[in-house]
């Protein structure tokens, strides 16, 4: 994207944005100035500015593979200074979150990768092969986020009734019973679940790319009843938090 005159010497950060579906980004697109669309295999990538910040936004599609593809394309093709993953998520019971609140990930956990034994589910550490090894650091199921970026996001999201920081769980099978939700909550001390986060932070760790994840709560994870969900509220509040983060960066 061509920078305006005078910005070459002090180029503002290019921020990569990712959501899984377009409904999670309609407010972002409405507030984007000077937008243009680029074609990439299986991806719709939109360039523009929000609050004067240059952004490149990819709608990845649902799930870990699509999310990993999208963030890899953004990093390799556009070299953003950081990535913001955003969208809706389901809050676990007794997480302290309700529909419309904001959750920010302090770490992402692969909830399905591992081994199921007679003692129950065990993570990839029981196999002994890390999902990522960089130098002396080994990551099995868990990938932490930068605490400084977390503080920045939470400090500039005062418009929402409640914002909570905690572990997220990425699953391939969405939880549709309260019993399973409590099992995952207790296993990982987690506050919410989603279907993309661990894959995105995993790829960002491979490329040493800063990343944050912001979720608007669309539902409480319990007996599945979409009549009780409010995706529009969760997605709207999440995008407001993202735009405040962009203003603060």
Please render the helix and strand layout as text.
Elements: E1 14-19, H1 26-30, E2 33-40, E3 43-50, E4 53-59, H2 64-78, E5 82-91, E6 102-110, E7 115-117, E8 120-122, E9 132-134, E10 137-139, E11 142-144, H3 147-155, E12 163-170, H4 178-188, E13 192-194, H5 197-206, E14 211-220, H6 231-248
Parallel strand pairs: 1-4, 1-5, 5-14, 6-12, 12-13
Antiparallel strand pairs: 2-3, 3-4, 5-13, 6-11, 6-14, 7-8, 9-10
Largest sheet: 5 strands, mixed, barrel
The helix fraction, in percent, is 25-40%
The backbone outline, from C-alpha atoms, is globular
Computed Rg: 18 Å
Beta-strand proportion: 25-35%
* Whole-number mean pLDDT: 91
Count of distinct strands: 14
Task: Give the terminus-to-terminus CA distance.
Answer: 20 Å
List the secondary-structure elements in sequence, H or E.
EHEEEHEEEEEEEHEHEHEH
Strand order of the largest sheet: 5-13-12-6-14
Count every helix, treating DSSP H or I runs of 4 or more residues as helices: 6
The structural class is alpha/beta
Low-confidence sequence ranges: 1-10
Oligomer: single chain
């Amino acid at each position: 994207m061509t920078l305006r005159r005078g910005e070459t010497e002090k180029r503002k950060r290019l921020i990569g944005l990712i959501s899984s579906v377009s409904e999670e980004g309609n407010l972002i697109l409405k507030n984007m100035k000077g937008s243009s669309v680029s074609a990439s295999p299986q991806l719709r990538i939109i360039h523009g500015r929000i609050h004067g910040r240059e952004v490149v936004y990819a709608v990845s599609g649902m799930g870990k593979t699509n999310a990993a593809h999208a963030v890899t394309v953004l990093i390799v093709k556009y070299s953003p200074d950081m990535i913001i993953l955003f969208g809706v998520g389901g809050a676990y019971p007794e997480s302290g979150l309700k529909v419309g609140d904001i959750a920010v990930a302090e770490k992402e956990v692969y909830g399905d990768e591992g081994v199921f034994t007679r003692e129950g589910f065990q993570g990839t550490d029981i196999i002994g092969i890390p999902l990522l090894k960089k130098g002396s650091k080994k990551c099995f199921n868990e990938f932490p986020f930068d605490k400084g970026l977390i503080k920045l996001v939470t400090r500039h999201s005062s418009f929402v009734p409640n914002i909570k920081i905690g572990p997220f769980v990425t699953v391939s099978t969405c939880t549709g019973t309260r019993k399973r939700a409590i099992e995952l909550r207790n296993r990982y001390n987690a506050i919410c679940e989603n279907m993309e986060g661990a894959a995105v932070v995993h790829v960002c760790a491979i490329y040493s790319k800063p990343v944050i994840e912001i979720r608007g709560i669309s539902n409480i994870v319990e007996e599945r009843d979409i009549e009780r969900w409010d995706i529009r509220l969760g997605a709207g509040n999440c995008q407001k938090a993202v735009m405040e983060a962009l203003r603060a960066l």
